[in-house]
Amino acid sequence: MLSPFRRVVGIVGIAVVATLGITACSAGSSDSSASGGKSVVVDSSFDLKTADPNREYETTGSIVAKALYETLLTFKGDDVTKPVDGLASYEMNADNTVMTLTMADGHVFSDGTPVTVDDAVFSLQRVQGIKGNPSFLLEGITVAKTSDTTLTLTAATPNPALPYILPNPALSVVNKKVVESNGGTATDADGAEAYLNGASAGSGPYMLESFDVASQVVFTKNPKYTGDAPAYDRVVLRNVQGPTQKLNIQAGESQVALDLNPDQVAEVGSSDVTVLSSPSRYMIFLLLNQDPSVSAITSNPDFLKAVKAGIDYNKIVDLAGDGSVQPGGFIPSLFVGAIDASDGNQHDAAAAKAALASSGYKGEDVTLNFPNDITVQGLSLQSVAESVQAQLKEVGINIVLAPAPVATELDAYRNGKETVGLWYWGPDFPDPSNYLAFTPGELVGLRAGWAAGADQTVTDLATAAKAAVSTDERQSAYAALQKAQNASGPFVPLLQPAQNVVTSKSITAVSLNPVWTIDLAGIK
Amino acid sequence: MKTEKRSAPAGIPPLARYLAIRLGVTALLMLGVTLVTFILTNLVPADPVQAALGEQAAANPEIVAQFRENAGLDKPLPVQYFTYLGHLFQGDLGTSTQTRTSVATELGKAFPATIELAVGAILISAIIGIGLGLWAALRQRTFVDQVIRVVSLIGLSVPAFWMALLVYFIFFFQLKLFPGSGRLDPAAIAPPHVTGLYTVDSVLAGQWATFGDAVYHLVLPASVLALYTIGLLTRFSRSAILEVLDADYVRGARAKGLTGRTVVFKYVLRGALVPIITVLGIAFGSLLSGTVLVEKVYSWHGLGEYAFSSATKLDLPAIMGVGLVVGIVYIGLNFIVDIAYGFIDPRVRAA
Amino acid sequence: MSQTTAPTSRTQPDVLAVAARRRMRFPAALRNPLAVTGTAIIVIWLLLALLAPMISPADPLAQDFDRLQPPSAAHWFGTDQLGRDVLARVLDGARVSIILPLLLVVSSLLVGTVAGSIAGYFGKVADEVIMRIADLVFAFPTIILAMVIAASLGPSLTNAVIAMLIVSWPAYARVTRSLVVVASRSEYVVAGRLLGNSPFTSLGKDILPNIIAPVVVLATLDVGTAILLLAGLSFLGLGAVPPTPDWGAMVSDGVQNFSSWWISVFPGLAILTVVLAFNFLGDALRDGLDPRTADAVKGRAL
Amino acid sequence: MSTIPASQPAASGGLSIRDLTLSIGRGDKAKRILRGISLDIPAGRITGLAGESGSGKTMTGMTVLGLQPAQATVGGVIEFDGRNLLELPTKKLNTLRGNDIAMVFQDPTSSLHPMLSIGSQLTDHVRQHTGMSKREALERARVVLEQVKVPDPAGALKKYPHQFSGGQLQRVAIASAIMCSPSVLIADEPTTALDVTVQAGILRLLRELCDDLGLAILLVTHDLGVMSALADTIAVMREGEIVEHGDRFQVITAPRDPYTKALIDALPHDGSAPTAPGSTSTGDAS
């Protein structure tokens, strides 16, 4: 327009370029890593709430607690069938009511003080006293110090699962003196959480360097740790969504990714990374409410049969990708009592249509509620819901999807108000007795409107399973229970998704476990 | 549009009066913000207790009762609200029902992250947007002008969340030009906390490598976020500058024989600055709300993500805290913009 | 907060001169190549949306195909994680992703214009109440407020639209109010009032025709914003309920399957083209407006 | 029609316009704004250029400084100091603008930047043209403000345009124009935007400057009343051409051109300037 302005434009242009140049320059100088020693980056999708081991009961929380603390009993590697000694060794009396724990010598906290029986008693009582999410693990159990090296856990009713419960990282032993001096008590007045979110007070392989529930937790090696020293001096556990995890591990930004779904794993290609794929501990299931006041349709046994036969399980397993399986019953394949898919529900469109015809269903809309902001091992429940909807449509059942954020939906689910629900269950401890929740009148059973006494056959089988002692007995008792549930119960086990841990080639070993997902100290 | 503020009644210093009114309005608005958020979040047909407690704990009436009592949820709603206000007046934003950490602490972490992102984006958009707007204005009705117009409209039309993905995929994953998620290299240690802005804190601590790292991580998300505001600022500064280019004082400046550079930077840009600053303020506000979509893709744990997770997890005190902070920022922004007018325009200063 | 509406009025205080000069050269504005391009794209998309069931290559809900197939002759846009045809879903998604925001803009235009007219014309209490509520809404960032509302009402398209309506009417109210304030001081309106016109006659006959053009331009520009906002909410899982095809939700599906770029790239491009088309049109129309009223529109079209 | 040759040759420091043409647009659609203007603006005299709005008088003034619209095509010669201004590159022209040839605009409230201090606006071009230091330039500005009779010159330098009355501001604008001691001053409707009461003062100031500094002043106005009070020679423009050119007395009392005659007859007889029915073509940009 005006010749003198021509130069100005040039100047502005240069200014823009120069600014970009400056950013580019400064970018070049960032590759120096700030810390000495070897460090490893683990990407995970957080559900973290706290670093207080006695309060945490989340997947990420367990990973954190496992790295910072030790438990009285533990599992070796991924073998959860046999509890082994941790900070203590144990003995169980004959009727499974009293467990005596003898503290092992030589364990010390990161501040150098020895781990004593007082610390152990305090920690377990603290779990009970603060009335938090993990408190139920020790419900009905009395913890008492019996000598300078022993304590007893006394249960009111026989509790054979107790040795399997104790390795849970929520039952970690904290340094009593440190915790108490920071407001800690074994009651609901406990105020040590804030302190434990900033520093660890444990005897585990790592110490807490920094903790941010939203973004990342950083661990540094505990020099006082008495076990095998971990291979990495520093671990960064970052909160990263599954898709981003995949890009990060491919680009070498992280060394371990925990939440890739099978599709993503398939895309990674095994040339740059190592993929460890195994069935996870989670079981995704459909529940059909048996309470006629909630739904006359879903409480109809024929309709229930139609749904069970109408779902194409293979298609869902296919959707979930390699490594995932159809659980035969509600107990995942990892545990005693699990049954094979061939013993579970089978897809049979003709049978479904026949059952539907005799149920009197007239094509009414049936609402399927599910949380849409949850992924299980990277698999979104929404995909499963959409798949189920399409399959049931083929046999003539009209499902309407009703997604909601999990927080909103939990209320309806836990109060047994959902007509059809799509949820998943992660075991509280690696023992089939945890799955008795899926029987009439129990925790999850009630959510499906399955009241106590609603199905005497199943209830009787549950009682029998509970009473079974030897592994063989338990196996067959739980198998029978699940088959009965499959026949008449409100739960339709759909899927046990694969757990895929992807590591870069520089990692030679990771230690996975169904209870605490991954032992950060086991990364080599 | 309001010009009534130009004259203040005699007796009270106009600035004091202005500040008093401003503060009063702000306080009322904040009260409104808390009330609206409180009502909205209590409309949710779900129980925050369920959202906060685990499977087994939620089935235990004792634990549930304990939780309700601790969170004050056992009281009637009006009591809850007034209790909240009471704490608020003492500077206490309450405790998150999810993490049992003080909301102020959590906001203290999330807020600087978002501010850093938004400031980065506004800087990028100011430089590029005003530059392009100036270029287009000086080349009005030429091909360049048309191209810039289309480019800026594209900037206004790109869905940020989609662009965030695309850019991440291309520049981080394919070309490996920029780092991936997060605010710093995972191996890096965050600089000592002063402002919470990594760029500022690292400079304060003299950690230049960390500063570079922080800026490096900022480039992609800030650029994506800036696209919209670049479009906005380009369009707006173009028309503001065009208007000024026609002004007598620009012709006057040229008649004085001033060089093109002086005319543009001293006369034209200054003349267009008031409307441009206004848009910058509005743009910054829109950036703040836009961050949630970009934060999600870049694992940038800022206010947007905090707001989203609090909203979906029914973390009432956290949502209220976000509402308050954001409200204050918006109002503060307008305030800053008004003050900026004063610095730029002596006529406003006098009024 | 409201003084930011028309920034240039600070340097150019003769607002009163505007009323007489306000003319909208619509036909001329529409001859602009941008407007032609924009209109053409919009028409094409609207046709696609209307004809979707007829021209769609597949049932957008049917999970009939192999999962995650890249684009091919059989599936131009590939298939998604459930084996649905992406092209079919993009076409069908137009119905939700374009038409719903259009309805939304029309409703917020109605609500906002009425509220703004009342505030601007009657002033005093009505003005204070309405504009303070508007201020309150403005004190929230749009998407966060929409997020909270959508989360409390539960995700569904209806609720998302309600949330968006709540956050978008104040823009119209402000622009309308400022235009009405100016217009109602102009001589012909004052004269009309002196002649005994009722407030409503005066509003409807003398004022509205004068302010309608800028409001329509604002609305055109706003369609793009509305499409983006709805897509954003759906992306966050607070909008469209599956399996309804919605572009924002489809992009979100693509996030989970990053390497299957086609799942998110095509719906993203769809959003981009439609929004761009509306912005082309709106921008061209705005050029046709008197510069002063265009400022009011610009100031609020953010 | 432009038949009037210069009555005196261009004195040194003066300006001479020959056959100036200006059109906007190309080919048949071209709009011819100036159709061959020839005019001398000698030093020490005030040359009036009158005409109604749209006659091209303001464009003539603008073109002298090269401020015509970018899309305009210009022909002819504007001779200054032995050079044709129309052929000077912008860079060269810039060294003359404000330095040797200065301009005063119609409305001082819009021709001065509202956000820059008087001191800054009075000195920026001086410093650029002469390389004076900031302090020297400010001192010069103070002297010049005193010269144009702005009260409290030192204080005025720190003020902003909105803090002055219109009349005072026009004095400031004139001060800005004469800061570099130009030899030619183009005054485009310098009193039109002012109150009648202060117009006389400004006119008197222009006269003084012309006489004291030997300035060549081109006074562009539609107001023949102003013109008759101030100009030494008067040229009348109509539709891009000069239709009348001569001594003030001769033009006012015995116009040869019927259009001029009509203009003069329209003058009110109380001596005050008639209110402008519309402003000049560029004057309404505020």
Mean pLDDT of chain C: 79
Overall average residue pLDDT of chain D: 83
Question: Tally the helices of chain C: what do you get?
Answer: 12
Shape label of chain C: elongated
- Global Rg of chain D: 18 Å
Order of helices and strands of chain D: EEEHEEHEHHHHHEHEHEEHH
Q: Describe it for me?
A:
The complex is a heterotetramer of chains A (524), B (351), C (302) and D (286). Chain A has 524 residues and is α+β, with helices and mostly antiparallel strands. Chain A contains 16 helices and 22 strands. Chain A has helices at 3-28, 59-68, 117-129, 162-165, 176-181, 193-196, 242-251, 262-268, 301-310, 313-320, 349-359, 381-395, 406-414, 443-447, 456-467, 471-488, and strands spanning 39-44, 73-76, 79-85, 88-92, 98-103, 141-145, 150-155, 206-211, 216-221, 234-239, 256-257, 273-279, 283-288, 365-371, 375-376, 379-380, 398-404, 420-425, 491-495, 498-504, 511-513, 517-519. Chain A has a 7-stranded mixed β-sheet, with helices on both faces. A 5-stranded mixed β-sheet of chain A has the order 17-14-18-13-19, with helices on both faces. Mean pLDDT of chain A is 87; it is low at 1-36. Chain C is an all-alpha fold. Chain C has helices spanning 18-21, 26-30, 33-55, 86-122, 124-138, 142-153, 157-185, 187-194, 199-235, 247-256, 261-288, 291-300. In chain C, helix 3 (33-55) packs across helix 4. The longest helix of chain C has 37 residues, at 86-122. Helices cover 36% and strands 22% of the residues of chain D. Chain D is built from 11 helices and 10 strands. Chain D has helices at residues 57-64, 90-96, 108-111, 118-130, 134-147, 153-158, 166-178, 196-213, 224-230, 248-253, 258-265, and strands at 15-24, 31-41, 46-50, 72-80, 83-84, 101-104, 184-188, 216-220, 233-238, 241-247. Chain D is globular, with a radius of gyration of 18 Å. The chains are: A alpha+beta (524), B mainly alpha (351), C mainly alpha (302), D alpha/beta (286). At the A-D interface, loops of A face loops of D.
